[in-house]
Amino acid sequence: MREFVYGRAVGRLMAHELYHMIGQTRVHARSGIAESDFTVAELLSDHFEFTESALAELYTSPEAGEYTARANSDEAGGK
């Protein structure tokens, strides 16, 4: 169980950094994975996710749009 909780905490930190990279933003949200700092309790909690506004920002970033277009093309049979 300890390895699972540790891995999930590290995954959440990685998700935070990917948010910055994909969204090409230095902006932080007030809560969730996109906030500027986390408590140990947040990293270890059962539920700790992106806020809807942070996800919306990712959906509107040029890089996210490129990725989505490629994924849709791959699903449709294009490469």
SSE topology:
Layout: H1 2-23, H2 40-44, H3 52-60, H4 62-75
Keywords:
79 residues, mainly alpha, elongated
Give the gist of this structure.
This protein is 63% helix and 0% strand.
Round the mean pLDDT to the nearest integer and report it. Answer: 79
Distance between the termini: 40 Å
Tally the structural domains. Answer: 1
Using the CA coordinates, give the radius of gyration: 15 Å
Fraction in beta strands: under 5%
Q: Which residue ranges are poorly predicted, with pLDDT under 50 across at least 5 consecutive positions?
A: 67-76
Structural class: mainly alpha
Query: What is the tally of beta strands?
Result: 0
The number of distinct helices, counting runs of at least 4 residues, comes to: 4
**Which percent range fits the helix content?**
55-70%
- H and E string: HHHH
Report the sheet with the most strands, covering strand number, pairing sense and barrel closure.
Answer: none
Shape: elongated
Structure description:
This protein is mainly alpha-helical and 79 residues long. It has one domain (2-75). The protein contains four helices and no strands. The longest helix is centred in the N-terminal third of the chain and has 22 residues, at 2-23. It is elongated. The relative contact order is 0.15.
